[in-house]
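ingest -> fold -> write
write: protein_1
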Amino acid sequence: MVEEEDPVKLHKNGNTLYEIGRYEEAKEKFLRASELYKGKNNFFDATYALFKAGECAFMLKDYASAVEYFLKSAELSFQKGFDRFGVSALEYARDCYRAMGENEKVSETEKKIKEVKAKLEESF
């Protein structure tokens, strides 16, 4: 009998690895957990695990991968109505673009953040 992977266990392992500075291993745990969460329609935890994978890549100074994970997290967040969380992911993506010196992307991302924040303020 093959034991089914547990996304919660992977997520916790990822957190532990992150805390001790083993970012590459943590990133792999978070990415796998995200896929498993999506498969179980647990979209909030899927977005959070992607976000954590982005943080790992950021710590590794792999800004291109970090942007990819943060943007995927933001996109899924916005699709599922987790707008405030999506804004946080966009802010991290902006910081990655800044670290890479991609000023045009920084400006585009800033604009998107402002648009989403304005929309959120309208809903209150």
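write: protein_2
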Amino acid sequence: MSIIIDPTARVAEGIRWGEFCVVGPRVVIGSGCEVGNHVVLAADTVIGSGVRIDDGAVIGKLPMRAANTAVTKLAELPPARVGEGAIIGTHVVVYRGASIGQKVLIADLATVRENVTIGDFTIIGRGVAVENFCTVGRYCKLETNVYITAYSTIGDRVFVAPGVLTSNDNFVGRTEERFKHFKGVTVGRGSRLGVGSVILPGKNVGDDALVAAGALLTKDAPARMIVAGIPAKTMRPVPPEQLLDAQNWPDVQKKS
């Protein structure tokens, strides 16, 4: 077995290792973890107990900054952290400065950038990209190939269907004016975004709103309403039995 573990790393007993893993300086790994082949745990990364990390995953990667990037900043970042019981899929990349909650599942080929927080029990699907300076709440589901743009906030119990796209730049990368106006999307508690929907920069999706499949959201979606079309228009209220507070899930703190 070929594993490189820096002498400053703190590794609990009983870790199940694959082949050709690299554990960097000051890494901390809790008990009962399973680590696949060709996994890289970069400097200072903290892995909780009972975590599974599949083949080829990289945790704690430093961001790259292109000469003309608008949002990647070369600043000191805290260590990447992965909570207890999380599952990190094959070839997932989690950047330094990301914080992954307990029992989160990040599926194969997904990317979680720096300055991102993922809440407990959330599922990040295959090929999902969560860009920098984002917050994703608890018990969310981001399905295959979702793109969450930088500076976005996703509330608790949000469902994002496959292929949903978000944006933060109304100037589409031209003129210096754009640097004053970057703004991601805000998706409220219990909201649902249908397959292939597109949310434009700075738009708010209210609590428990439903954005229909294929919709183009060019203005805010009101809370507890269904919006649909290109551009999206308000159609009708979400049926009462579909609201989050009607689900009787133990984690849901009902609002009056």
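write: annotation protein_2
The chain has a mean pLDDT of 93.
The chain has two domains: 1-62+79-130, 154-256.
pipeline exit 0
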